[in-house]
């Protein structure tokens, strides 16, 4: 099975990367980009909306480049890439809010090494938009003077999220939003859920592949999403808007904890095991610094996970009020949250389309405010006040 077979909904982008990987097997170098669709270059930028499969495509391309003699992906290379253990693969990512400059400097230094097993050393930068400007400038220097056998693959929501100087040194490939049918087929194949559940999860996730997989495999996530939408539909005054904002924050917190708790426990157990500390044994003072560093990393991940959880709630609320608008405009056949059709009809009769549009604008503003470090509770309260229905 080719490494590209696990991807969905991005036929044009897959064709570009597949052709570039095939070109490397003919002996062409990685430097000197051309305008040909099959050309290979030293730096790529994959852009697309969240859930479009940017990282999946980046690692599929990395697998093809690291596979000896075949652009379809060697099985041994695929296992190593999946486990993130291939010696010629470096991953630059963060579980915090931003990517640290020290981390970028370490990866840039590693990019100068020659590949040990493959034709290329491949560096995948996930969430490249999480670099501040001075950190991006460190990466820029590496892209300006790349080693002959190093390939950079950057991922970001859009080209506008990166500095113009970086955009000018990479080849951009834009991804679209896969269809609900394509995501549903992927869910059935990957998780084994029945066709109805797959369609429902793909639709409610709005074709966001990662979220669709989570909804399909986690009943609690589905329940939290439904509670979120019903809570918003129940707002009748300022006091209930404030109470609902607090509840939505609690739901986001519960979702973040469920997402990170198991990983945190496994990481802590692994560190203690590597330090020779038995379960239940007190940590010696000389080793507490290493455990403290792990806890700090986990706190940063928890902060990001909470922000991501709040943003997911706002995306779900946007789908809800988009549905209200569709019902008001007589387009009920296009609604996303079909399971709430009766409640949507009631909500649509309680206000005019202009009021619903104001709520959608308030949701977009709340997302921007939270991204700008406004207190989430205040941003949610201000947004939900616009959602009051009599």
Automatic annotation (TrEMBL):
GO terms for molecular function: DNA-directed DNA polymerase activity. InterPro entries: DNA_Rep/Repair_Clamp_Loader (IPR050238), P-loop_NTPase (IPR027417). One of its GO terms (biological process) is DNA-templated DNA replication. Pfam families: DNA_pol3_delta2 (PF13177). The keyword Iron-sulfur does not apply. It comes from the Bacteria. Its EC number is 2.7.7.7. Transmembrane segments: none annotated. Keywords: Nucleotidyltransferase, Transferase. This is DNA polymerase-3 subunit delta. It comes from Glaciibacter psychrotolerans.
């Amino acid at each position: 099975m080719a490494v590209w077979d696990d991807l969905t909904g991005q036929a044009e982008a897959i064709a570009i990367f597949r052709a570039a990987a095939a070109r490397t097997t003919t002996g062409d170098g990685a430097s000197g980009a051309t305008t040909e669709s099959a050309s290979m270059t030293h730096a790529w930028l994959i852009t697309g909306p969240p859930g479009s499969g940017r990282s999946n495509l980046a690692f599929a391309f990395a697998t093809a480049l690291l596979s000896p003699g075949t652009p379809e992906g060697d099985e041994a290379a695929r296992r190593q890439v999946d486990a993130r253990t291939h010696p010629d693969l470096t991953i630059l990512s963060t579980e915090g809010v931003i990517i640290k400059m020290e981390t970028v400097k370490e990866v840039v230094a590693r990019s100068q090494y020659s590949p040990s097993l493959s034709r290329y050393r491949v560096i995948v930068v996930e969430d490249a938009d999480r670099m501040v400007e001075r950190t991006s400038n460190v990466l820029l220097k590496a892209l300006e003077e790349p080693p002959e056998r190093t390939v950079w693959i950057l991922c970001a929501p859009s080209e506008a999220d990166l500095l113009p100087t970086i955009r000018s040194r990479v080849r951009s490939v834009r991804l679209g939003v896969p269809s609900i049918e394509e995501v549903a087929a992927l869910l059935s194949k990957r998780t084994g859920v029945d066709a109805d559940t797959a369609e429902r999860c793909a639709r409610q996730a709005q074709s966001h592949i990662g979220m669709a997989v989570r909804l399909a495999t986690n009943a609690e996530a589905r329940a939290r999403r439904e509670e979120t939408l019903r809570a918003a539909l129940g707002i009748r005054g300022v006091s209930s808007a404030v109470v609902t904002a607090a509840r939505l924050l609690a739901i986001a917190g519960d979702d973040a904890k469920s997402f990170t708790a198991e990983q945190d426990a496994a990481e802590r157990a692994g560190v203690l095991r590597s330090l020779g500390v038995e379960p239940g044994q007190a940590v010696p003072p000389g080793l507490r610094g290493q455990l403290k560093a792990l806890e700090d990393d986990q706190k940063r991940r928890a902060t990001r996970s909470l922000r991501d959880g709040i943003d997911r709630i706002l995306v779900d609320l946007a789908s809800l009020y988009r549905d209200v608008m569709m019902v008001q405009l007589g387009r009920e056949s296009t609604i996303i949250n079909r399971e709430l059709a009766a409640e949507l009809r009631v909500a649509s009769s309680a206000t005019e389309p202009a009021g619903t549009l104001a709520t959608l604008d308030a949701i977009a503003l709340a997302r921007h405010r939270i991204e700008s470090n406004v207190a989430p509770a205040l941003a949610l309260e201000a947004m939900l006040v616009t959602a009051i229905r009599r």
